[in-house]
User: Fold these one by one.
Assistant:
Number 1:
Amino acid sequence: MILQASLILVLVFAVLLAVGIPIAISIAVSSLATILLILPIDIAVFSSAQKMVASIDSFSLIAVPFFILSGIIMNNGGIAAKLVDFSKLLAGRVPGSLSHTNVIGNSLFGSISSSAIAASTAIGGVMVPLQEKEGYDRKFAAAVNIASAPAGMVIPPSTGFIIFSLISGGTSIAALFMGGYVVGVLWALAIMIVSYIIAKKRKYPVVTEKTNLNVKKIVWEAVPSILLIFIIIGGILTGVFTAVEASAIAVVYSFILAFFFYKTITLKQLPHVMAQAVEMTGVIMLLIAASSLMSFAMAFTGIPAALSSLVLGISDNPIIILLVMNLVLLLIGTVMDVAPAILIFTPIFMPIATGIGIDPVHFGIFFILNLCVGTITPPVGTGLFVGSSVGKVKIEQVLKPLLPFYAAIFVLLMLVTYFPQISLFLPNLLGL
C-alpha cells in the first residue's frame, strides 16, 4: 500500500507539472488521487476540502500577507538605488568593491523584500551593467549577483522561517530569525571573500572617489529602510510585540517611509500595490492549503514513516544521515520554490532530524539554507535563470564563473549542518 501510494503521489504530481499545471493544483490533485486509494470518493473529497480550509485557519499565518505587503511597498518605493549607494559606502575602496556592493545590496534588499528574485532583479539590474562599464567581466558580475541573491532570504524578516515555524509545530520564530541573521551574514561574507580574491587577481577597479561625495545624503536616505529589519527583530526580542504584530508594524512603517519620507508611492499607486499583495498572498495561501493536503495524504498512507525508516536504514551515523538529507533538500530546491518545499518536506524530515537529536532551530535553518542554495543550482534553479536573464548572459556562460561561489556556499552549508553552534549561539546567547 505504501509503495503504491508513493508511486501514485509522485507520478501524478510529476505528470501534472510536466504538462504545465500550476504547482498548487498539481499538489492538491495528486494528494486527492492518493487518498482515493483508501477512502471512497465522497469522503475523500469532503476530508480533503476540510483539511485545506483548516490549514489556513491559523492566526500565525496573518504575518505572511502583512510581510508580503510590506515587501511590495518597499519594492515599489524605489529603495533599490538608495541601498546600492549605501552599499558602495560599506564596500569601501577594496578590490572588487562594486561586486561587494552587489552582495551587500542583495542581502539588504532581499531581507526587506523576502525575495531573492526581487533582489537579483532590482540590485543586479543596476550593478551588473555598472560593473561591466567599470571593466568587470559581465559573466563574473552576473555570477556574483546570482550567488548572493538568496542570502537575504535567510536574513529576517523571512517568511520562510514563519512558515517553517507553523508547519514544524511552533519552533521559536525569534530563535529562527536570530540564527538566520548569522547564517545570512556568513553567506554574504563567503561571496565577498571569493569576489575579493578573484577581483584582486584580475585587478578589477574599485569605486572612484567621486562616488562617495555626498555621504550624509546617502546614509540619510538608506538608513530608514534598513531600520525596518532592526525594528522588527528588536520588537520581537524585547517582547514589545509578537511576530504577527511585527508584520502589521512593518506595513505601517513601510507605507510611512514610501509615502511621506521618500515620496515614491502615491495614492493612485496603492490599488496596484494592494492587488499585487492580494495576488501573491492568494498564491501562497493556496500553496499552504494544497501542501497541507499532501502532508495529510502522506501521513494517512504512512509515507513519512516509511521514508524515515528508509533514510535511517541507510546508516545509523548522524553524519551520513545529515549528508543524505542535504543532498535530497538541494535537489528539491532546484525544482521547487522554497515555500511549497517547506510545507511538503518539513513533516517528512523533521521526525528524522529529531530522531537523531537535531535541535529544531538548527534543523530549520539548515533546511531552509539548503532550499535557498537549490534556487541557484542547475539544472532548473529559478534564481539561476532569473539571474542569467538580468545579467544578459546564457546559463552555460555563467556556470564556470559560479563554480568558486558554489564551492564557498557548499562549505558554508556543511559548516552550518555539522556545527550547530553557528546557527544556535546567538539564539542561545539571547536565551531564546
Number 2:
Amino acid sequence: MAAFSVTNTTSPSSCLLQPHPSSSSSYPLVSLPYNRKFGVSGMLGLPFNWRRRRTSMRAVNQNAEEATLETDSPIRKTDSYQDGRTTTSTVWDPSIEAWSQFARRVSGEWDGFGADFSNEGKAIELPESVVPETYREWEVKVFDWQTQCPTLAEPDERLLQYKSIQLLPTVGCEADAATQYSVDERKVGEGISGLTAFAYQSSGSYVAVWQKKDNILELECCMFNPQDCESRVRVIQFIHVLNNTELVLQGIRVFREQWYGPFRNGDQLGGCAIRDSAFASTAPMIASDVAGIWKGSTAVASFSTSNTGIFQELFDEKVQDSVRDGDSNILLPKQLWCSLKQTKEGETLSEVGWLLDHGQAITSSCLFSKTAKPQEISIALETRALEYA
C-alpha cells in the first residue's frame, strides 16, 4: 500500500468550528460508560450543490486570441488536433473540482457506532464471546460495535481507501485497552477488483456496489447530513443473487459516524468523547413519517452501457416526485429506512432513506437490471408534500 502524508488540520468542508465539550453518556440500560472520543462539532455545513455547474472553456488559437465559452455540460477534453495543426485548449473540468471537494469532505477519521439488522429490521446481538463479563452479569444485551472508519481520498486522482474497524466492547473509559475485533479494508478506483459500480457527489456522499463471494452483493450507501458536514450514515445492504436474476435482501448493517479529525489511518483513540451513542436497541422510525409524496432534485449516474465505466459522478439531472408507502419499508432506528423491491418491468430497486429535520430527507437509490447488474444510481434531497407534513 502506498504511503500517504497528510498535513490537513481542517474539517471536511470548511465549516466554521467551535470547541465541543466532552461528554460521557452511559451505555444503554446500565450506568457503565462506553468508550468515547473527543472531537469537534461543526456549524451548519455547506449545502449540496444540486444545480448543474456551468463550465468555462478558454480556447487559445494560433493567433493567441482568447475566447470564453459558457456551457451547461461538463467539458472533459484537454487537447485537440485539427487539419494537421495543434490547438491547445485549457479546459476547466468540473469533474475534477467535484472530486476534489468530495475528497476534502470524505477524508478523515470517522468514529461512531455500527450495528447489524435482519432483513426485517430487527437488531442482532453481538457474539457473546466479545461481550465483557460485566455486561453478562448485569444481563445487558449488547447490539452495537464502537467503530472507526479512517478514510482518505486523493484529491488529484480518483482513488479512495477506507477501513471499517469494529472495536471490542469495553467497560468504562478504557481507551488504552480498546482492541480491534475486525478490519474491513476497501479501495475504490477504476479497475479495482470486486467493485462493480461507484457513484459520488461533491457533498461527500457516495454509493458503491461490491461483488462478494457466494453470489452476494454489498450495496453501500454513504449519506452526509446537508446541514451538518461532520455527520453521516453508512447503510450496507447484503443482497443474495439467485440465478443471476433475483435479488433477495439478507441483512443490513448501519454505521452512524462523526468526523473526529484529519486522516491518521486509525492510529489514534481519543478517549471518552464520541459525540454519539449506541443506537441499535432504540425505537425504529414511525412508518407514517415515511409515507406520502416527496418532491426533490435528484442527482443521477447511469451504468446502463458498457462504455460508461464503473466510476461516475452524480449529476443533477431531474426533479421528480416519489410516492412511498411506509408499511412496505424496513424501518430502522435514528430515522432511517430501506427497501428492496421488484419493479413492474422486472428490475429491482433498492432505496435507503434518512429523515432529517423540517420534513426533509436524503435518499439513495440503486436500480438493478433483470440480470442483477447496476443500471442507475441516484441521490436526492427531498421535501415532504405539505399535505403530509
Number 3:
Amino acid sequence: MSSRHVIKKVWARFFEYLLQFDQPISWVIFLVVTIDLAYLLKSPESVENYLDEYLQNNPKQCEEVENIILHHNELSVMPGNIHRFTNIRILDISNNGLTILPDIFQYCQLSNLILKNNRLRNDTLPKEFTECSSLKELNLSGNDIKYFPDQILNFPNLKFLYLGGNNMENISNSIWRLKHLQVLSLGGNNISDVPLSVGQLKNLQALVLCDNNIELLPANIANLHNLRSLLLHKNKLKTLPPEIIALRNLSELSLRENPLIVRFVSDIQHQPASLLELSGRALKLYNIEVQPGDIPTTLLGYLNSAHRCVNSNCKGVFFDNRIEHVKFVDFCGKYRIPLLQYLCSSKCATIPADDVIRPHRTYLMKKVLLG
C-alpha cells in the first residue's frame, strides 16, 4: 500500500473517531498539496523538467496540487507545462525576470496570482485575460507597467490589487467595475489625477496612493465608508477635501512630505464674477421665485446648480466663481489638518482663528503620520 493511501486511511479512521462524539465539529483540516521551488535560482528549463517529472510520477496527485511557489528563480518566461496543474489556486512567480505573461486563466481558475518584481510591460501582458471569478488577489507591483492595464477589469471578484512601483501614470476611469476591492495599492507611481470612480469602491478598506504626483483628491472619497487606511505621503497635496471628516472608520492617515499649507494665501488674484453669476446670486439671496417658463430652461438649470457658501455667518451662494479657503480640522486632539473649502467671496475668508472643525470623537483617527 502506498504512503498516500496510508495517510488517507489514517485520516478516515480519525474522522470516524470524532463522529463517535455527539458534539458538532467546529473545525476542518485540509491537506493542501504544494510544489515549492522558491529561492533555487532555477532556469525555465529546469523548472519545466521538474514539473514534467512530477506529472509523470504523480499523475493523479497533480490534480490535488493547489499551490505552486516559484519566487526568486530565473524565469524569464513562465514554464510551459504549468497549465497542466488545472486545480492550482495560488501561483507565486515573484522576483524573477519574467518578461511576458500568458493568459494562465484560460486553464486555471486561480485565487491568488503574485507577479511582483518582474519585467512585465503593458505590451507583454495578454490583450485580454479570460474572465476569472475566483481571483481574489493580483500583485503586479515592481514591474514596468506605464498605464493602468484595463485587462484587470475582467476579474469581477478581485479583493486585493497591488500595482505599486510601476511608474504608472493613470488610474482607469472604469475601476468602479472592481466592486469588491478591499485593498488598492498604487504607491510609487507617477499618478497625478485620482478619478471620481475611485469613490465608487464602497468596499475599499485601504487606499495606498503614496509617492505619486497627486495635487488634489476628489470630494467623493467621502463615499468610502469602509476605508480604514489612507496613505498619501510623498505627494503634492496642499489641502484635503473637507468631506474626509465623514470617513468614520478611517484610523490611519499618512500625510508626510506633502506641501500642506499652514495658512491661507490671501493675495491670490481672483477673477470678478460674471454678470450671469451676479444675477443668479441676487435671485437666490433675495429668494426671488422663478417658475418654469419665466426664463429659458438652461438658465433655470443654472439657478438650480447654486452652491451654498460654507461660512455659517454668510447667506450667500456661488455658481462658478468661488474663493478657495483653508480651514483646519483637529485629528487625534493634536494635529490640525488643512481642508479645502469654497466660499462665495473673499470677505467670507475672514473666519475667526478659533473657528475650527472638530469631528465627533468617534471620527478621530488613531494614527496621523505627518513626519
Number 4:
Amino acid sequence: MLKLLSWHSPILQTRTQNLNLSHLAPPLLLLCSSLCIKHSSTISDDIYDPPFSHTSKPSKSKSPIKALASEKEQNLPVHSDLPFDFRYSYSETNPSIQPIGFREPPRFSPFGPGRLDRKWTGTSAPAEQFADASEVFKEQNSVLGDPLTEEEIEELVERYRHNDCSRQINIGKGGVTHNMLDDIHNHWKRAEAVRIKCLGVPTLDMDNICFHLEVDKTGGKVIYRHINILLLYRGRNYDPKNRPVIPLMLWNPYPPIYPRLVKNVADGLTFEETKEMRNRGLNSPPLMKLTRNGVYVNVVQRVREAFKTEEVVRLECTYVDTSDCKKIGVKLRDLVPCVPILFKDGQIILWRGKKNGEQDSTS
C-alpha cells in the first residue's frame, strides 16, 4: 500500500495543498485523501502506472461472413442474364394456366424488397429480354464439349450412382425449384456430376424433370437414368468461376388460386350420370395404393391399361396429403389423359371420358 501511495505522492501533494483539511477529523481526512488518490488515478498520464491506468477496449472487427454480406448488400439489386422466368417451381407449374386470384399481394417478392431487378407478378419474375434459342443452344454445347465415351460414362455412374453418394440432391413434391439450381452449381464446383433422387408427385413425369434439369435450366446433361435416380453431368468445359448468377428466393411464396379441378358436372355427362360415376368409382376396388413421397413412375401406364377395360378407376391415397392428391390428379389429367371427377377421403376417382364412337352416337 505504501508503494502504491508513493507512485501518486506528487499528485497527492498538489491536490491537498489547495484544500484546508486541518479542521477535519482523522477518519474524514483519510477518506478525502483516498478519494483524491482515486480521482488522480483516473486522469494520470504516467505510463508506469498499469494497475490504475484506463485501458480502452479493442474495437471488434467484423467477421468475414458479415463483411461479405455487407458487400453483397451494396451491390443490390442483383442482375441475372438467365433467359427464363424465375419461378418457385419449374416442373410443377404450368405457365399457360392463369390464376384467378392470389393469397398474398403480388408486390411481395420472394427475392426480398429491392434485391432483384425483375418485377414479381405473383407467380414469376419475367425476364426482361428473350434470348435467342440458337445462341443459348450453342453456349450449352460449348460448355458440354465433346460427348463422353462409354468408359467415361461408366466411371461417372459407378462413382455417383450409389445411395451413400455425398453429391446428392433430393427432389420432393416441389419439383425442380429455383434455389435447387444454385445447389446444383455448388456441387459442380468440386464434382463433375451430381446425383438427383426424385420422390413424390414429380416422379409421375420424369421426362419433364429431365427437360427442366438439362435442357432448359442448368445446361447440363443427364447421362444416367434409372427409375427415379438421375445423374446430371456438368460438361467438359464447365468453369465454376463463370457460373450464372442465380438470385435466391428468401421464402416459399404462397401458391395462387387456380380454377377448380373437379366440376360439379363433368363435361359430356349430366348431373345424374356424374353422380352415378362417382358412386361406381368409390365402390370399385382400388387400382393402386399410393404412399406418401413414394415413386409413381408406373402410375400413368397402369391407369392407361385399366381404361382399356374399365370406365372408372379409383386410386387409394389414404396417407397422401390432400394437396399432393390434387397435383396427382392434374398430372394424370394431362398425361393419360382422363377426367378427375372426385377427390374424397384420400380417394382419387378418374373417368376415362367419352370415346370418339360414344361422342358420335350421342351427337
